[in-house]
Amino acid sequence: MKVTTVGIDLAKNVFQLHGVNEFGKPVIKKQLRRDQMVEFFVNLPAYLIGMEACGSAHHWARKLQGLGHTMKLMAPQFVKPYVKSNKNDAADAEAICEAVSRPNMRFVPLKNIEQQAVLALHRVRQSFVKARTAQANQIRGLLGEFGLIIPQGIGYIRTRVHFAFLYNAAGSSQGA
């Protein structure tokens, strides 16, 4: 029988595939290691392939789309209702295969490498800003324990912390 639709559950090292024919009957139930993915799909006719939009999904979607397959990415919360049994990789792949064939399914647009690079840059910057804010709040809290109150805002930390230490050092040496 001819396979028409494949659902792939991505993981770190072992991927689960579930493929159905035009009647919706399972034809492929297979596990592949990361290094076997391209080798498996390279000589196959064009399939509709669905995956959950996760960490490496855009990479694999671009790779498989380059081999001629039609790729559809879905948000995990839209796939979850299609899981029929206990959650495992095989059940997830089957649910992905079922969800991708639904006519009213909402799909995630496939990102190119440049889009992913910009998003990664923003994510790293956001992480640095969050860490800087946490550090500033910690400094304000510690100085508050010594009676040195610094208003909220990163600018106040920069301008007043040096002054607060100088003031505190001068005040403590005068009292001795």
Automatic annotation (TrEMBL):
Pfam families: DEDD_Tnp_IS110 (PF01548). GO terms for biological process: DNA transposition. GO terms for molecular function: DNA binding; transposase activity. This is Transposase IS110-like N-terminal domain-containing protein. Residues 6-145 form the Transposase IS110-like N-terminal domain. It comes from the Eukaryota. InterPro entries: Transp_IS110-like_N (IPR002525), Transpos_IS110 (IPR047650). It comes from Linnemannia gamsii.
